[in-house]
Request: fold
Amino acid sequence: MTEYRLGEIEMKFAELIWSREPIASGELAALCQEELNWKRTTTYTVLKRLCDKGIFKNEKGVVTSQVSRQMFQAKQSEEFVKGAFGGSLPNFVAAFVSQKKLSREEIEELKRIIEEN
Reply:
């Protein structure tokens, strides 16, 4: 079962992969050295951890996702709503809009999304 919780640095790493996949693992290690100031061993350790979680895979030195960025974000959001609001999307939306006034465009976009689903 895929775990949809990542720390801040794991999310930065995941974003690097999602934005460039498929990516050679050596290229990923060089990118992480440049972007995150990581050693090669750190890159491979974090990559293995995220592969073990089922989010990415590293086959023959090529890293690709098993879970898309969109699917990851959807599942992460679902887990948040479940944990924080007992799974009630209406309660989540009510709490969200109590702190932020929605624009007419945002309201129309939400209506469109609801009608499509």
